[in-house]
From TrEMBL:
Organism: Planococcus rifietoensis
Assigned keywords, A-Z: Cell membrane, Cell shape, Cell wall biogenesis/degradation, Membrane, Peptidoglycan synthesis, Transmembrane, Transmembrane helix
Domain called Penicillin-binding protein dimerisation: residue spans: 68-311
Keyword Cell membrane: yes
Domain of life: Bacteria
Protein name, entry field: Penicillin-binding protein
Gene Ontology BP annotations: cell wall organization; peptidoglycan biosynthetic process; regulation of cell shape
Primary localisation category: membrane
UniProt similarity note: Belongs to the transpeptidase family.
Subcellular location: Cell membrane; Membrane
Molecular function as annotated in GO: penicillin binding; peptidoglycan L,D-transpeptidase activity
Amino acid sequence: MKTPQKRRVSLAKSKLQSNTTFRMNILFFAIFLLFSMLILRLGYLQIVKGEDYARAIARTEEVAVNTSVPRGRIFDSAGRLQVDNEPVNSITYTKMQTTKSSEMMDVAEELAKLIEKDTDKVTLRDKQDFYIQLNTESATEKVTAEERAAIEAEDVPQKEKQQKLDALVREKITDEELDSLTDEQLEVLAIYREMTSGYALSPQIIKGEGVTDEEFAVVSERLTDPKLEGVNTVTDWKRVKMTDLTILGSTTTPDQGIPANRLDYYLSRDYSRNDRVGTSFLEQQYEDVLQGQKSSVKNVTDGRGRVIETVPVDEGEPGKDLVLTIDSELQYELEEIVEEKLLALKAGPNSQLVKDAYLVMMNPKTGEVLSMVGKRVGEDENGKRVVNDYAFGTFTAAHEMGSTIKGATLLTGYAQDAVEMGEVQIDEPLKFAGTTQKNSIFNTTPFNRIPMNDLMAIERSSNVYMFKIALDIADRQYQYNRPLSVAPESFALMRNSYAQFGLGVETGIDLPNEGTGYLGGVSPGTKLLDLAIGQYDTYTTMQLAQYISTIANDGYRVQPHVVKEIRKASPDGETLGPIETVIEPKIMNRINNTQEEIDRVKEGMRNVYIGSSGSARAQFSDTPYTAAGKTGTAEAFYFERGNPFHNTVNVNIAHVGFAPYEDPEIAYAVVIPYVTTDPTKVPKTNNEIARAAADKYFELKAKHSEDEANEIKPPFSGTRIK
């Protein structure tokens, strides 16, 4: 009976051992499979993906870093410095990609112990956020459970809910609580907000101008201190103008950075938000040239994104220098002439409206602008009369220019077969139905008839001669007291002809925001006649200068420019850098006239200066050089609501000329708007400025050598910053 019992036990043990062995075999097989898969995976990673992962491990981030590459400088035509970079000590902060806000706050608190930081830029929002950061628990408790529940119940994304909750917390912070922030805390906040305004791995200026030598030294001594991680001391620069000439333009500061309206434009060109950029005139026009190339570095990061090494890749390149066509000595002297005459006018009778005066002088063959003067009378904060630079008005402000454009009208008449060279016309007062009498200044008596040819018409400035050219172009015959109807095509024909000279169109000057003047429409009455004598459409002084240059240059219209050369940065600080680009003369078009016709108009303009009836004879008949020109007087309406002279007729005066007559070196245009409120007493200040300016040019030409020096010179001693 016992044997069967033992057998059953033996069979059970055998079965148990068999099951255990089977399970162990399965386990070992599974382990084998897992190890096989692991080995295969490791082999795949090592053999197939090894190079990819090796590259990933070695991957570095190349970041363009603003290292304050000096902006290109600006020199006048003689190498005198006009705009420079002045070095300044600066304290910067560079945050890492892994830097936390709390870590930046700790650095700000430590840095605040070492430097003084202005708190004027701290905003209400900054104070609110800072207060919440310092008093998180008590600030968040200001929002009730009901208010939180109401926000959570809204059907909006969670991010928007959090924004509403944060805004509600800020609203509940009282003025008294914000006033509890100490001056020391506000200083920390001012530093902190500068730290957070920049990009990771890009230095942000914490304090630029105003860093004292003591602050610079103390911070420099502690650059290795972990409490000041990311802080650095560098030599930065600021833009300094040596003259108040406005066309040089201006740049933003690092605090201002890129203007908001140009942010996308500059960011797409690898600028940083705190980069300095040109905001007006030359600084803006030549931004790409002046800016330079920022240095580039490779930031090597570890697995946590921390920078462990910075490797220079490109040292960058300073901005290129501009050499202007303007001679600062000539500019200064002509400014003095214009300013003196403008103040004399303002001190005289009937001068309630006069405030501006303009003068442009250029080389008619090359388009080089030798001087562009604009002056405006104003008052300082104490009510004292001052004269400010308004040079940009020479190409932005447009006015009626009067008889100065009669040379273009006569040449248009030649081209349209409306008049022939030497043709005699009768100067007589004209009367059209529904209008007042239209006449020349020297012939106001009705039915008085004075025969004159084209030369005399220019010399004596005959309005009627030009009227009759316009009538012929419009295919109309004058009949006493009959209405005049003119087709729009006649306006278009004359304006298209004027455009060949640069009147009413862009001159192409290398400065932004050029104005083109006002086109007066296509009135069916006598406005075409007014257009022919410069009393309808308006033009800028620069357009007037290009117009007279076109005549002086035998009909070739040349594009004016104020930059002569683009040079690389000076290698030694004493000589100008190598020339990279020379701005060559650019001919825009030639007028539709023969050389004989152009010479005929030049002869008439010569007679304006030396003829017995010349309107500028008193000022130009005795010049030691030969010259020719044309004067202009235009009736102009003044518009300024609230001014007692609003909508009244006033007088603009202008003058154009060129010299020497046989081989012109200069062409000049003078404009003084609203020179008098009494049309019967018009001063000749336009002629006086033109004569003094031409005299000064030839005087300085004789004084200075023709050799082009390559040395960098200090600013002309007469220039000044107001």
